[in-house]
Amino acid sequence: MIDAILSFIDEAFSSVSDVWLILGFVAQAMFTARFLVQWVASERARRSVVPVAFWSFSLAGGSLLLLYAIHRRDPVFITGQAAGLIIYVRNLMLIRAERKRDRAEPPRMS
Fold it and tell me: Tens digit of pLDDT for each residue in 43-70?
């Protein structure tokens, strides 16, 4: 059983070109980093927080994973990553618009 698993792992890693394998791991690391960023920000604030860096890592990691999925010709992976990119871009657009509104508003008097 262990020999079969090791053989599968060896085959899986040797059948992918080094560049694509590295891209896949970098993309996955970026995608995972977004959760670490969100967790640290929430712990510091002592409440649930979703910082801009979460959406930036989501977009960067998701874009690279989409490239990897296209290279692998995996329609399930492609669909999932493409749909996610729409959400990440939209959230960044909403944040940008909010910041623009905040800069345009005069300071409030208490």
Answer: 999 998 899 999 999 999 999 999 999 9
| Residue-wise DSSP of 53-104 | HHHHHHHHHHHHHHHHHHHHT-HHHHHHHHHHHHHHHHHHHHHHHHHHHHHH
Q: Distances in Å between the alpha carbon of 31 and those of 44, 46, 91?
A: 21, 23, 16
CA–CA gap between residue 60 and residue 8 (Å, rounded): 30
Determine the pLDDT at residue 90: 94
Place of tokens 């670490």: 36
Rounded Cα–Cα distance for residues 55 and 92 (Å): 7
Count of residues for the chain? 110
Place of tokens 């409030």: 108
- How far apart CA 63 and CA 82 sit, in angstroms, is 8
| CA 66 to the chain's CA centroid | 10
